[in-house]
Amino acid sequence: MKILIIIPHSFVPPNSGPKNVIFNLIKFLHTNIICDLVVLSNSQSIEEKKIIRDNILNNFPHLNDVQIFSTDTNNSWLKKQIKSFLLVLSGYPPVISQYDSQELIQWLNQDLGNKKYDIIHFDMFYVVKYWKYFQDFPKILVPHDAYSSKLTQINIIDLKTWLQLVLFRILEKTKYHKFDLICPVSEADANFLKTISPSLTVNSVPIAVADEYLKDNPRFFPINSIPKILCTSSGSVPKVTEEVFFFLEKIYPKIINKNPQTKFTLLGKYKKTKVIEFENKYNSFENIQYVEDYLSFLKQDWIYVYPQTWGSGLKTKIQQAMALGLPVVGTPNAFSGLNVENGKHCFIAENDEEFENSINLLCQDVNLRERIGKEAHELMKKDYSIDSVGKKMINIYNMVIHK
Question: How many alpha carbons lie under 13 Å from residue 117 in its C-beta half-sphere?
Fold first, then answer.
């Protein structure tokens, strides 16, 4: 089997959720099938593009070919606005204009005819408009999330947000039909896409957990005599901030009332005024904006909490915590798309009381932390390893090719 994967940005190092998805997938694919990559880059420099290519090949030495193409970043402001407007008229979100590449189009027009591919893999919706150059090829789109479902989870208070929702919904309903198969990363997103467009062919493929999170025996780190709670999130998303702060204001006080020495660490960048407020209120609270080595930081006897209800797709941070053997307490949304059993692999909290009770149980029972953590690790190793997810993707390629 020979495949071409079109990727909207350099994914080495894999320092974000979307980059993790494609990095871990290619880690499996490049040793099992013939794999070519097309990667877009904002850089116009030949030297910088060579560095990007070399970095990719250093990580994936068995790739057959890697092509790096510059996006059209040199366009004037006016030209960019015109292109965005024309995209909107064609039913595409304007953000897709950032991934226009005349270099790529020239290569597709001149060289694609000489290539023999069994299937084309489009990574993320940013590259969706290049479908028209592959009309004679089997092709799949891996959009990761159902983006218009994500936008419906926030309060629409301005025209820009409303327009984004409309354009993503149009994209999903009208452009996704150009592909033989759509592969979001969770079953919930797959079901949403089927609901808004019943004729779509959709099949979810989960995010693989990187090998370094699974290679050690779970929970080999020292056990804490004083329970520690960890929450990692982004303060740049208002809805996430609101829900994390609600947890700290309404649920955490009840936890420390029963477990006075319990420490709470919030990892992520938040407004300093609010952080200072919590630091003054709780001696056991700390905010760490950034850690250089997240994997090493996570290898502690944490109780990992996820109070957020916003977002779609699989939650990479949840998977990583479970893979290391950490007990996780979260909202139902935290585990959306994961094949978990409440009380065995994690604790799913439907309300504030269940959040409080689950965390109290884990704070007071180290054996429970051990049992839940080890079950979580085994689940991640069985269903979400790079080998497991990679084999599922190859099965999907074969299904589309032979359809």
Answer: 27
Give the global pTM: 0.88
Across the chain, what does the average pLDDT equal?
90
Q: Determine the residue type at 396.
A: I
Q: Which residues contact 46 (CB under 8 A, 6 or more apart)?
A: none
Please, which residues have CB within 8 angstroms of residue 395's CB and are 6 or more apart in sequence? none
Say if residues 309 and 284 touch (Cβ distance below 8 Å): no
pLDDT at 311: 62
Structure tokens at 127: 């590259």
| Fold adopted by 212-383 | Rossmann fold (3.40.50)
Contacts 24+ apart (CB under 8 A), 21-25: 21/123, 21/142, 21/144, 21/185, 21/207, 21/208, 22/123, 23/59, 23/210, 24/207, 24/208, 24/209, 24/210, 24/386, 24/389, 25/208, 25/386, 25/389, 25/390, 25/393
Q: Which residue has the tokens 């409309």?
A: 166
DSSP conformation letters of 151-178? HTTS---SHHHHHHHHHHHHIIIIIGGG
Whole-number Cα distances in Å, 156 to 107, 244, 309: 41, 20, 16
Nearest Cα to Cα of residue 262 among 170, 321, 329: 329
Token digits of residue 242: 């609101």
Q: Which helix or strand (DSSP H or E) is residue 92 part of?
A: none
Q: What is the CATH number of domain 2-208+386-401?
A: 3.40.50.2000
At residue 297, the 3 state secondary structure works out as helix
The yes-or-no answer to whether 2-208+386-401 and 212-383 have a common fold is: yes
State both tokens at 45. 């420099």
* DSSP of 44-80: --HHHHHHHHHHHHHH-TT-SEEEEEE--TTS-HHHH
Helix and strand element counts for the chain (H, E): 15, 12
Tens-digit pLDDT profile for residues 341-382: 999 999 999 999 999 999 999 999 999 999 999 999 999 999
Q: Say which residue the tokens 């599922």 belong to.
A: 392
Residue 221 CA to residue 244 CA, distance in Å, equals 27
- The full set of domain ranges for the chain reads 2-208+386-401, 212-383
